[in-house]
Inverse folding.
């Protein structure tokens, strides 16, 4: 585990406070036009009641796609029938929750984007760092850890190239506690050899039978903690936020609320690394796009005080 210290404590003790988007939005499960007569709302409500996880902020398209996979597995053809199944089977509700939380992730996903991140953000942060204290990185929606460890490797490589010994603390967060448990182990199947170069495998992993384990010096850089970006307070003093392919599944008000939390978390000159096609909706004055292909943005510093 890394040296997150106060960051870890903030996540562990985070109070469940509603985001601005939550306060101003009518949920899928709320009463009214999309209330109890709506099978989609009934399904979301059944999962919330059984697991405590609220998917009402997901886009309807994402909800239907994940639900239809479970419907097919259960041999059902209608949303009403599946909603009735959830009412009597909390195990199925837990299975749907797991399906909803499933994230497609791998090491250095979209390699070109990670090359831009390494050259523009990672080396920039290392070369321009002044004063004591570690560079703080927040990987939001980290799933099973591949993205967080990929970024840790980029910082390790930058330290070697620049001949520096700067400290880096990466806090990787998710609401899926099972995924966090797997991430903290840092052990992956040998299939990652298709994603990670032989040089990186030799330098940053230890081969153990048919599995690769992340090397101890990389694992010490990363802390994993439960945190719900839609409810819990944002972190502060962050130099780089990485949140890839999470916003695309959220409705516009929820996306804006999450992006506002990232703005609050970032230093005035901090970097924001999003997934392909994701944009800082409504926050354009606060961010400028450095590289469209990588969706790498930088927070715009506040204007100087007028004389």
């Amino acid at each position: 585990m890394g040296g997150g210290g106060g960051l870890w404590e903030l996540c562990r003790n985070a109070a469940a406070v509603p985001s601005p988007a939550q306060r101003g939005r009518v949920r899928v499960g709320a009463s009214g036009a999309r209330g109890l007569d709506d099978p989609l709302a009934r399904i979301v409500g059944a999962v919330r009641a059984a697991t405590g996880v609220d998917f009402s902020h997901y886009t309807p398209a994402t909800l239907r796609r994940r639900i239809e996979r479970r419907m097919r597995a259960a041999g059902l053809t209608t949303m009403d029938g599946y909603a009735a199944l959830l009412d009597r089977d909390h195990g199925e509700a837990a299975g749907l929750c797991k399906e909803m939380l499933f994230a497609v992730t791998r090491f250095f996903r979209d390699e070109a984007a990670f090359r831009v991140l390494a050259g523009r953000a990672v080396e920039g942060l290392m070369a321009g760092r002044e004063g004591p204290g570690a560079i703080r990185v927040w990987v939001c929606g980290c799933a099973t850890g591949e993205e967080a460890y990929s970024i840790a490797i980029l910082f390790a490589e930058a330290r070697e190239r620049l001949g520096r010994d700067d400290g880096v603390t990466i806090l990787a967060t998710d609401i899926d506690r099972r995924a966090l448990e797997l991430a903290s182990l840092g052990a992956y199947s040998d299939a990652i050899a298709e994603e990670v170069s032989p040089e990186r495998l030799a330098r940053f992993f230890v081969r153990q039978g048919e599995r690769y384990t992340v090397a101890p010096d990389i694992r010490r850089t990363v802390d994993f903690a439960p945190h719900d970006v839609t409810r819990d307070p944002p972190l502060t003093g962050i130099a780089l936020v990485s949140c890839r392919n999470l916003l695309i599944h959220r409705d516009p008000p929820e996306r804006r609320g999450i992006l506002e939390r990232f703005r609050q978390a970032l230093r005035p000159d901090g970097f924001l690394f999003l997934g392909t096609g994701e944009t800082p909706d409504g926050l354009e004055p606060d961010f400028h796009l450095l590289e469209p292909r990588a969706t790498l943005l930088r927070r715009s510093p506040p204007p100087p005080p007028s004389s």
